[in-house]
Design a protein that fits this description.
This protein is mainly alpha-helical. Helix content is about 75%, strand content about 0%. Helix 1 (about 10-35) runs antiparallel to helix 2. Keywords: Membrane, Transmembrane, Transmembrane helix.
Length: about 60
């Protein structure tokens, strides 16, 4: 006698939250890689793009 419950909306919400955390973590790792990259010749443009990306992440989190 199989007791198959299927996927509930709570399960989907948990999966969505986990994937969102993974996505934000990857974005932060990409920002860290960009800030430590020595090949970029325009240091001020690099800092401005990092600032804009952090502002976008902050807006999504709030």
């Amino acid at each position: 006698m199989s007791d198959d419950k299927g996927i509930t909306s709570d399960d989907l919400a948990r999966i969505s939250a986990c994937l969102e955390i993974v996505g934000y973590t990857l974005a932060l790792l990409a920002l860290e890689k960009t800030s430590s990259d020595k090949k970029s010749d325009a240091n001020t443009m690099k800092k401005e793009s990092i600032r804009m990306a952090l502002n976008q992440l902050y807006e999504k989190l709030s």
